[in-house]
Amino acid sequence: MAHDHAPENTVTTETPFARAVLIGFSLLFLLLVLAMPLLAVFTEALRKGLPAFLESLSDPETFSAIWLTLVVAGISVPLNLVFGVAAAWAIAKFEFKGKAILSTLIDLPFSVSPVISGLVFVLLFGAQGLFGPWLQSNGIQIIFAVPGLVLATVFVTFPFVARELIPLMQEQGSADEEAALSLGASGWQTFWYVTLPNIKWGLLYGVLLCNARAMGEFGAVSVVSGHIRGQTNTMPLQVEILYNEYNFVAAFAVATLLALLALVTLVLKSLLEYHYSAELSASRRH
Amino acid sequence: MARSTSGGWQFRQPSVLPGFRWALGYTLVWLTLIVLIPLAGLFFRSASLGWHDFWALALERRTLNALWISFGCAFIAALLNVIFGTLLAWVLVRYRFPGKRIVDSMVDLPFALPTAVAGIALTTLYAPKGWIGALLAPLGIKVAFTPIGIVIALVFVGLPFVVRTVQPVMEEIDREVEEAAATLGASRFQTVFRVLLPGLAPAVLTGFSLAFARGVGEYGSVIFIAGNLPFKSEIAPLLIVIKLEEFNYPAATAIAVVMLLISFAMLFVINLIQAWSRRRYGYGA
Question: Where are the bilayer-spanning segments (chain B) (predicted)?
Fold first, then answer.
C-alpha cells in the first residue's frame, strides 16, 4: 500500500488545501452519484411506513419472483463456475496457439448489450426462431420459460469466474502442481488438494460477482421472459412491473431486497480483498 | 492435433500437467454453445434479410436517431467518467482520510446494484419533484426524461470501470519519477499533468473503452430515467425491445447487428490506440 509511507513534503504531494479540495470534491461526487440513489431506494420503500413496506413484500407474486431469481442464479452460477475453472486451467496452465483469441472470445459477452444477449436466444429458440418450429412440435418451451432465463443469464455472466481465475492462476504458475505430480499424486488429487486450495478465495470472489450480476440481470432476462406474472418474472422484472403500475412503495420494497444483496456482495468482496488479498489476482489487491 | 511434435509448428508446448484436452475441450464446447452459436445465429438471421432490406431497416430514421443517442450519450458519459474516475482513483491512492475504506468499497456499488434498481432510484432523484430534480428545476435544468438523464445513468454504471482500471496502475507509479521532475524544477501542477497523467494514458483508455462499451448497450438503468421519446431520448437497445414486442424480428436483428458491428469496430480502434500509447508512455494495463 503506497499511501502508508507517503512522504509529507509538498514536492511530491499537493498542498494541504489542494488535498482537502480534491477529497471534498470526490466525496461530494460520490454522495451525489452513488450514495443518494442507494438512500433513495430505502426511503421510497419506507415512505408509507413499515407496515405498508412489509405488506407489499408479502405479495405472492413477489415471493414467486424471489424464488425464480434464486432458481435461475442457482443454476447459472454453478454452470459458469465449472466453465470458469476449466477455461482458467487450460489458459493459465498451458501454452498453446490461439490462446489470446480464446481469451478475447470468453470476454465477448461483456461487450454485447444485455438486450442483444436476450435477442440471440429469441432468434434461436423463439416461436419464429431457427429451432422454434421443431421445439414447438416437441412441446419444449425455452423462450418465455425458465430455460430461456437461464440461458440468457449464463450468457451475460459468462466471463466472470474465468476473468478472476485466469490472471490469478497465471501468477501462481504450475510449480505446486508439478511437485504434487512428481510425488505421485493423480491429476484429480493434484487439482483437489493443490490447485483448488490455492485458488479458493479467487474463485469465491468470481462467484460473488457472477452471482450479483445473475440475480440482478435485467435487460437480457427481460427480452426472454415474456413477463408472465407469477411465472417468469424475476425480482428485477417485478420491480419494473410494479414501478410502471405506479405502485412505487412495492417497487422500491422489492428493490430494497436487491439493494441489500448488493450491499452484502460489497461487504463480502471487501472482506476478501482485505483478508486474502495475497490469494486474489494482483488487480484486486488494495 | 494436440501432440503434433513433428516439424516446427506445435499446437502446444509440452507440459507434465494433465487435463489439457479435457479442459480445453470443455471450454471450447461450452463457449461455442453459449456464446458463438447464438451470436452467429444473429448474423445468420440478418444475412438472410438480404443486403437491400438490411440497410433499409438499419438506416431508418428512428433507428439512426436511437443509435446516435446511445453512442453519443455513452461517449459523453465515458468522458465524464474518465475525469471523475481518475480524480477518484487519485484521491483513493494518494490521500488518507476517515472512512476511506468504505468509500473505496462503495465505488463498486454500480457493479453490484441491479440496473433496474439504479434506474428507478435515479429517476426518483432527478424527477422534477425529486431530491435533486427539485433543486435543478428552478434553474431551468431538466434531467429526467431527457438525454441528460441518460448520461447521468451511464455515469453511474460506468464509474467503477475507470476507477478500477486506473487505480492499480496509479499505485505502481514510481515515486522517483515525481522526485526527478521536482528536482528539475517542475511545479507540482506540471509534474502531475505533464509527467504522471500521460503515463496513465493506457489505463485511462482501457477504462474509457470499458465504460463506453457498457454504456452503449446499457438498458436497465436508462429506460426509467430516459422517458423514451422517439427521436429525443430513445436508446438503441430499447428500440430493439420495441421491435421485438411488435414481432418485427427483421428490424430488431438489423439494429442489433449494426450496434454490434459499431461496438466491435470501436473496440478494435481503441485497442490499436492503446497498443500505440503503451509503447509511447508505458505503465501497462
Answer: 20-44, 64-93, 105-127, 139-163, 195-213, 251-273
Measured in angstroms, the CA of B280 and the nearest CA of chain A are apart by 23
- B140 and B218 share one domain: yes
- Cα dist from B49 to A121, A236, B281, whole Å: 18, 34, 46
Chain A residues within 8 A of B87 when measuring between CB atoms:
22, 25-26, 29
- B155 shares a domain with B178: yes
Amino acid of residue B247: F
Whole-Å CA distances, A61 to A44, A64, A250, B118: 20, 5, 11, 22
> Please, what is the end-to-end C-alpha distance for chain A in angstroms?
7
Which residue of B37, B105, B124 is in closest CB contact with A270? B105
Q: B155 and B75: one domain?
A: yes
Residues B258 and B217 reside in one and the same domain? yes
* Model ipTM value: 0.90
- Could you tell me if B19 and B55 lie in one domain? no
DSSP tag of A13: S
Is A50-284 a CATH 2.60.40.10 domain? Answer: no
Of the partner residues B20, B101, B159, the one whose CB lies closest to the CB of residue A33:
B159
CA-to-CA distance for B161 and B261, rounded, in angstroms? 22
Say what the pTM is: 0.90
Q: In the A/B pair of chains, how many CB contacts fall below 8 A?
A: 306
Same domain as B273, residue B216: yes
Residue-range definition of the domain harbouring residue B73: 51-281
pLDDT tens for chain A, 286 residues long, are 444 454 455 567 788 888 899 999 999 999 988 999 999 999 999 999 999 899 888 889 999 999 999 999 999 999 999 999 999 999 999 999 988 889 989 989 988 999 999 999 999 998 888 888 999 899 889 999 999 999 999 999 999 999 999 999 999 989 999 999 999 999 899 999 999 999 999 999 999 999 999 999 999 999 999 877 778 899 999 999 999 999 999 999 999 999 999 999 999 999 998 888 888 877 676 5
B43 and B177 housed in the same domain: no
